Every structure is written in C-alpha cells, then in structure tokens.
Amino acid sequence: MIRNAPILHPNHFLVVSCKQSLFNLKVSSGGDFDLAYAAAAGGGSDVCVQERLETVNLGLDILKVADLLEPGLSKLRGAVIISNKVSI
Q1: Rounded to whole angstroms, how far apart are CA atoms 64 and 85?
Q2: Is the pLDDT of residue 3 over 70?
Q3: Each residue of 35-86: pLDDT tens digit?
Q4: Which pTM was predicted?
Q5: Best CA proximity match to 41, nearest among 52, 30, 33
Q6: Domain residue spans of the chain
Q7: Residue 31 CB contacts under 8 Å (≥ 6 apart), including other chains
Q8: Distance CA 8, CA 2 (A)
Q9: Other C-beta atoms lying within 10 Å of the C-beta of residue 59
Q10: Contact at 8 Å (CB) between 9 and 61?
C-alpha cells in the first residue's frame, strides 16, 4: 500500500479495501494484537494507545468513503461505527 501511495488516490478501491481489511483484523483481535505488539516493541501503554488511535483513524477513513458511496444509514456505516466504538 505504501509503495503505491503516490500512484493511487486515497479513495481508490484497492487502498480502501486494504484499510478495511486491516481495520477488521485489528478490531476482531479484540486488543490481543495491540498487547502482543506492545510486548514485542517493549513500549507498554504508549504503543497500545498509538495502535488504538491508528485503528480509530482507519475507521474514520472508511466512514468518509462510506458517506460518499452510501449516504445516510447503511449497513457498512453502522458496522464501522460499532466496531470503532468497540476499539476505543
């Protein structure tokens, strides 16, 4: 994704699909991914906070695209909002 960033628009379907997959991975792990990453990095709570902020930012990026594609109430929008709330 980083390699193709200068070529692809931030809302390109490949970029959004990659963000959505990463968001789903982080949310579905239920924080275990964050704790394992923090332990491996030797950071502690700062790393966990950064990972959670990154997860929330991914969710907000997906919501921006969902608002453009499916304005109003939609299944995708609801799922992302609920997952974003759980990740906080």
Answers
A1: 16
A2: yes
A3: 555 555 555 566 678 888 888 899 899 999 988 888 888 888 888 888 877 7
A4: 0.70
A5: 33
A6: 42-88
A7: 48
A8: 10
A9: 23
A10: no
| Higher pLDDT pick, 4 / 54 | 54
What is the reported pLDDT for 40? 59
DSSP the chain: --TTTTTS-TT-HHHHHHHHHHHHHHHHTTTHHHHHHHHHHT--HHHHHHHHHHHHHHHHHHHHHHHHHS-SS-HHHHHHHHHHHHH-
Distance between CA 86 and CA 69 in Å, rounded?
24
HSE of 50, CA atoms in CB hemisphere, 13 A: 8
The two structure tokens encoding residue 23: 């968001």
Amino acid residing at 66: A
Q: Quote the DSSP letter at residue 38.
A: H
Q: What is the mean pLDDT of residues 7-18?
A: 88
Per DSSP, which regions of 7-77 are E strands?
A: none
Tokens at residue 12, please? 């390109």
Token pair 């969902």: residue: 66
